[in-house]
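Q: What residues go here?
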């Protein structure tokens, strides 16, 4: 069980700064996911932890000891890459055993470790095959098995499922979650797919432009985003975000934009006549009787998935609003719908995009 600490990590390539003072603790036994858009610095940060990149300034500690000047091979970490990085001329067994053979570990111990990992990952029947004879999912299991046999202090995963098809990614997510539950080791996982982050993580680290935007448990980030970026990035489909003007009334506020008019109780942090952003998840938008909602929009297109329906609604001057409804909602293209926002699930952000409130007072 291993704790990893990043202390004021900065990374620059010449004059180009890519990591800007990151402080983070990954607790022992935690499954921590780095998530963010392409170019946000998540893979660079993982490579810094692995020792594959040097830090410009700052320190990395593993179990309380600085490893800033320790080589990658001596940090005791195992990394699983997107590309699998298997030796094509070696069998599955040899791929998994190769690193151990170079440590002069006794052959019986090597075989025991390889077969135990292969059984755990359900690839025991493929130990004699070459990587070219395996599917993408099987190759990824081999790459993970090669990491497991080393008994590392922690596992580092760099977008390991991005080369797999959608159905196989779901299967492998389940297997990775089960693997973590089984062995209990510290794992750090990089992905741009926030669905992977939500389903795998004990803790999510949301990154943008080399900075941490928010750290927390998946549902904490989903329910209580600290800013507009996190609100729009975490969740699939994303949160609806509408720019509005706040006008004070005798009983509270009215948030207005085009044909949107949302009345809310008194809230601190709004400025009368000031700009704000209204956030509402698709599942918290409902269809009302004509004219009784907070806005009226036209259905642009629908996704009928059998057990649930997604409606994508437009009106000139406002961003598209996504509505998620259980069951089968039969509507036609360009049909006008009156939409209501659940007040208790309304999020408000100020003009700088920082949260004012994540739950409306009753």
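A:
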């Amino acid at each position: 069980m291993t704790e990893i600490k990043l202390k004021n990590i900065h990374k620059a390539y010449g004059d180009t700064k890519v990591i800007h003072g990151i402080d983070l603790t990954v607790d022992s036994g935690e499954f921590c996911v780095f998530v963010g858009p392409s170019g946000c610095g998540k893979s660079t940060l993982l490579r810094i932890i692995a020792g594959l990149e040097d830090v410009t300034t700052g320190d990395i500690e593993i179990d309380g000891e600085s490893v800033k000047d320790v080589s990658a091979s001596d940090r005791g970490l195992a990394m699983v890459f997107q590309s699998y990085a298997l030796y094509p001329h070696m069998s599955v067994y040899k791929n998994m055993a190769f690193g151990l053979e170079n440590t002069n570990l006794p052959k019986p111990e090597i075989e025991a470790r390889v077969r135990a990992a292969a059984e755990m990952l359900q690839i025991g029947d493929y130990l004699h095959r070459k990587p070219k004879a395996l599917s993408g999912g099987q190759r990824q299991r081999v790459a993970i098995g090669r990491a497991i046999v080393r008994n590392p202090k922690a596992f580092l995963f760099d977008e390991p499922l991005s080369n797999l098809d959608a159905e196989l990614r779901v299967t492998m997510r389940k297997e990775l979650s089960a693997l973590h539950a089984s062995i209990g080791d510290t794992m750090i996982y990089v992905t741009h797919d926030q669905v992977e982050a939500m389903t795998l993580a004990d803790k999510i680290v949301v990154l943008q432009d080399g900075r941490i935007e928010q750290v927390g448990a998946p549902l904490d980030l989903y329910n209580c985003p600290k800013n507009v970026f996190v609100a729009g990035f975490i969740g699939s489909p994303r949160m609806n975000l509408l720019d509005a003007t706040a006008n004070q009334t005798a009983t509270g506020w009215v948030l207005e934009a085009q044909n949107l008019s949302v009345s809310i109780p008194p809230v601190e942090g709004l400025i009368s006549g000031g700009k704000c952003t209204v956030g509402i998840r698709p599942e918290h938008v409902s269809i009302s009787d004509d004219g009784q909602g907070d806005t009226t929009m036209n259905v642009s297109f629908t996704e009928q998935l059998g057990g649930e329906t997604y409606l994508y609604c437009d009106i000139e001057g406002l961003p598209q609003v996504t509505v998620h409804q259980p069951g089968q909602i039969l509507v036609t293209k360009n049909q006008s719908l009156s939409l209501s926002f659940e007040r208790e699930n309304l999020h408000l952000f100020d003009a700088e995009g920082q949260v004012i409130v994540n739950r409306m007072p009753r």
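A: Context that may help when evaluating the design: Residues 237-357 form a domain with the OB fold (Dihydrolipoamide Acetyltransferase, E2P) fold (CATH 2.40.50.140). Helices lie at 42-50, 92-101, 107-120, 136-148, 166-183, 194-200, 218-223, 228-233.
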